[in-house]
Amino acid sequence: MKRKLQGHYEVVTTAGEKVRAYVPNPLPPRPAIAWEPELRSKFDQALLALGRLDSVAELLPDTSLFLYMYVRKEAVLSSMIEGTQSSLSDLLLFEQAQEPGVPLDDVREVSNYVAALEHGLRRLAEGFPISLRLFKEIHAVLLARGRGKSKSPGELRRSQNWIGGTRPGNAAFVPPPPERVLECMGKLELFLHDRPEPTPALLKAALAHVQLETIHPFLDGNGRLGRLLITLLLCERKILREPMLYLSLYFKTYRQHYYDLLNKVRLEGDWEAWLYFFAEAAVSTATQAMGTAQALASLTKKDRDKIAGVGRAATSTLRIHQAMLERPLATAGWLSTKTGLTPATVNKCLAHLGRLNIIRELTSRRRNRIFSYAQYIEILNQGMDIPEP
Question: What is the mean pLDDT of residues 50-54?
Answer without folding.
Answer: 92
